[in-house]
TetR/AcrR family transcriptional regulator
Amino acid sequence: MARTKEFDPDAALQSALELFWRRGYEATSMADLVEHLGIGRASIYATFGNKRELYLKALDRYAETRDPAVLGELSQPGPALPAVRAVVRRFAAEAASPEERRHGCFVTNSAAELAPHDPAVARRVEISWEHVETPLYAALVRAQAQGELAEDRDPRALARMLFVLLQGLRVVGKASQDPARVKEAAEQALALLD
């Protein structure tokens, strides 16, 4: 007779996500996962696969919970530029917050640690990034169509510039002790939309 799981796989995945997010992939051992999740190694393997597979599932979970927020913010009816500005300012505020400085963004952390040599991570990072850049582009196209953005501006190039800024805010915010650094950079970038 098959044994029933004595743990909640969803809660265990969330707990693994938090550990990987805090420590990174390389610095998290299987023993760390066993201790942190409070479940046996065999149960982890049976439910999630090996450490890398668990990491990929955690990265997927993170993206599922974070990525839709940007689309929701940028696809609201009405003027588009205020929504773009609000998203950039939110990213800057998050990057400057003590919580974000401790952990950073899990996708950005994964991009720096694993994407250069792990194609599966690189794919997930790229998909997550598209979920930020594409809504920015769509909002800027809408802003141009509504007369909020000058006709001679390139919405694709602006969206890419803002996207790269957002990723940079996350990296600098994680390492910097000066919150003004990211907030002032965000405001300078937003001035390019005027």
